[in-house]
Amino acid sequence: MKKIHEKIAVPVLAAAAALGASAATAKDAIRYNGPAGFPIAQAVEVPAGQAIVFLSGSVPDVADKAAPKDSIQSYGDTKTQTVSILKKIEATLKSMNLGMSDVVKMQIFLAGDPAHDGKMDFGGMMEGYRQFFGTKEQPNLPARSVVKVAGLANPGWLVEIEVTAMRK
């Protein structure tokens, strides 16, 4: 196994070194456009020498304290939860001297919504997401995945989001 790694590593390292001279001077992430009209990047390339920051999954705050504890009503619909989470992520990034424009990768976990016959509310998530990404004020788009999960740790949560950011 060691010999296989050595055979692969040498050409890869040589290619990286050859490309590294131009990439090492780059400051911004290189974002490859996704499908036309859809606000995600097909890929995001982080230049050499840049720090990568991984944020743990974030979940929504209670939106309605009068609603039954740990219910979907207490946290809100998918759009409400998405906006709540992205505001929390934005605040966390700001505390680290980063912003939403520094997000290069996003993973979104959606639980099935009883109000949508147990299907994930992709449209509601997109309504919340579009408030933070692909706007005139913040046009940088992350590479992104959205996955329907059987459930999240709290029965009232429909959304959990984790992001990776790049420090310039």
Q: What attributes does this structure have?
A:
disordered N terminus, alpha+beta, two-stranded antiparallel ribbon, 4 helices, 168 residues
Brief synopsis:
The protein is of the alpha+beta class and 168 residues long.
Structure description:
Helices cover 31% and strands 25% of the residues. With 168 residues, the protein is an alpha+beta fold. It has a single domain (50-167), classed as 60s Ribosomal Protein L30, Chain: A (2-Layer Sandwich), CATH 3.30.1330.40. The strands form two sheets. A four-stranded mixed β-sheet has the order 3-6-4-5. α3 runs parallel beside α4 (122-129). The protein is globular, with a radius of gyration of 19 Å. The two termini are 37 Å apart. The model is unreliable at 1-26 (pLDDT under 50).
Topology diagram in text:
Elements: H1 2-23, E1 30-33, E2 41-45, E3 51-58, H2 72-75, H3 78-95, E4 103-111, H4 122-129, E5 143-149, E6 159-167
Helix pairs in contact: 3-4
CATH class term:
Alpha Beta
CATH architecture title:
2-Layer Sandwich
Shape: globular
CATH topology: 60s Ribosomal Protein L30, Chain: A
Q: What count of domains describes the coordinates? A: 1
Q: Tell me about the largest β-sheet.
A: 4 strands, mixed
Strand count:
6
